[in-house]
Amino acid sequence: MKNFISNNPTKLLFGKGVVSKLGSFSKRLGSKAVIIIGKGSVKHNGILDAVKEQLKSVGTEYVLFEGIKSNPIYQDVDACVSIAREFQADQIVAIGGGSVIDSAKAVAVGFFHDGSVWDICSGGIRAKEALPILCVLTLAATGTEMNMFSVIQNDETGQKLGWGSDLVYPKVSFLDPEFTYSVPKNYTSYGISDLIAHTFEQYFEPTKAPLSDYMATDIVRLAFEYGRKAVDNPTDYESRANILWLSTAALNGSLSAGKTGGDWGVHGFEHSLSVLYDIPHGAGLSIIYPAWMKVYFSEIESKLDLMAKRTLGENSNAKDFIVAYEYFSKTINSPTRLSEVGILKADEDKIVENLKMNKVSGMFFEQNEEKYREMLSLMW
Fold first, then answer.
1. 309: buried, middle or exposed (CB in 10 Å: 19+, 13-18, 0-12)?
2. Full-model pTM
3. Residue 136 and residue 102: Cα distance in Å, rounded?
4. Is 2 within the bounds of a domain?
5. Is the CB of residue 234 less than 8 Å from the CB of residue 189?
6. Which H/E stretch holds residue 177?
7. For residue 260, what are the domain limits?
8. How many C-beta neighbours within 10 Å does residue 313 have?
């Protein structure tokens, strides 16, 4: 078990009606907010109006920036930074899922940087200051509402990069399970695949940290249980609430305690697919992970065996878990083959070249061209 520091400064309000507290928190931060949203669903389901009413109730002025893509690009972040500066914003209110909140984090640090925010996202420049962020989460998936990380894409260079800073932990995040009712069924499924993948990235790290590992197996077990229910019955509050909290717990630091942070090689692999084909992140992860497990089976068999016993039953083994995981993905209609998202075998060299260009590899499980092709052979 490694030395670790446990510190999560984000205050999280969870449950029905918690957005009614947003105004009081906004007032503490200032009086001028930039509201950031995606493609507009929150304009039609009443969530945006609820947030606006909260801001108006405490005299917070606001401007709206909309159009953040599901795979967010730095150009949209730069455009939002310009609006925030012109408005002289003193806070950001992000309403949406991971792409919106990740973009808000980049806007928060870009506000104080003279150049493009890509300078920071690509690791060229260290962020020194950030606007405070309030988050209203509408999709259970990434955990970004309670961590310091963000992922931004650059289509020009063929890169999708993760970055992080202690400065961009949201000040307060508001999680109302009812706000996830209107999420389309396919994106509900992709979010569940995403939270499971976050759990795997930390769980399969070889470092021994029993409590973190047991928590990881329980997150996967509960995701299997409540995930099917949430997809089948989108307005089942208990299922939505459990999936929402599982997605936060999977990446708020709890599972990395006693470890060095996880492998993240599968996420790196998926980022190449996203930047090349603009597929949903969770969809790519549910395709890659079974192949990754099969390729690295001899190195992770004991971990897979424990996962099987704690999620499927004491008589289950490592191979049983891979089968069960693929079956679960199919039952929630999250893809398990590249052909399901329109990626053909003829593109193998194109994918491999992007993986090589981005030097995709795990922190503990090394990837190279041979491994890329071996995994891809199991994804068609």
1. middle
2. 0.95
3. 13
4. no
5. no
6. none
7. 184-377
8. 9
